[in-house]
């Protein structure tokens, strides 16, 4: 269950709160984790609805902590951002995910790789060059990489973020607006952004079956996305009814526990094999 999966995180929080563990110590541990290579990636598949093909995966970072077990991003992403470690974290995530994409491509599976990026990445004018360098190092095509950014992130330093995103788009990298619908973006604002995908937040997706209101939100978001030439991804589909409803409404891609939880690379590979086996 989710509770058991996240036990490591719960314990971690308890230690921090209960014993007043110093933030400095957490920062030092995270810094060490980056040096020692303790971050690992799990991958969650994205299903293309009209074709039933697995089009790509989203890379989700975990921290294989030496004593606390597997920690989920909720336990350390904010810390990385506030401690100035996000540039390095993102660099490592890009490096690992593109090495993995290459390995899979070499074995005959050409998957789109989606990577989450943070506010500090998008206000860094060097970021597009770094992304290009990692792509080149692994010999990977830019158009098979999608960077997922949240709406709130785009509000912080809009001009700079638009500039950085524009350069990534020029290089051919895809850009998705993550958790779409939870912020306050206007249509005009969205239309002006150099993006390729909207990822509808799972709160709307979860409410979809049996709620005409949620269905209207999905329908209008789809119309908006398609009018702007964007791909609509629904995240957080937890049952077949939801997947069917999304397919019926014309959603392009779906992600969620019903299909698969995020998995370590070898398990994802087996999962893909099992799906395509006759
Ligand atoms: P996100 O980008 O919105 O990622 C989706 C989260 O929802 C993931 O949690 C995923 O495991 C979870 N999820 C997927 N399908 C379902 C479902 O059907 N139901 C439910 N309830 N949840 C589902 P996770 O892996 O714990 O990641 C949490 C957040 O941490 C991510 O949200 C993202 O904002 C951030 N994150 C993850 N990896 C990275 C990374 O490499 N870099 C940065 N900067 N942030 C990351
Ligand atoms: Ca995401
Ligand atoms: Ca999301
Ligand atoms: Ca989220």
UniProtKB/TrEMBL annotation:
Record has Transmembrane helix as a keyword: yes
Superkingdom of the source species: Bacteria
Presence of keyword Magnesium: no
Alphabetized UniProt keyword annotations: Membrane, Transmembrane, Transmembrane helix
Start and end residues of each EAL domain: 23-276
Name of the protein in its database record: Diguanylate cyclase (GGDEF) domain-containing protein
Taxonomic lineage: Bacteria, Bacillati, Actinomycetota, Actinomycetes, Geodermatophilales
Residue window of the full protein shown: 457 to 734 of 736
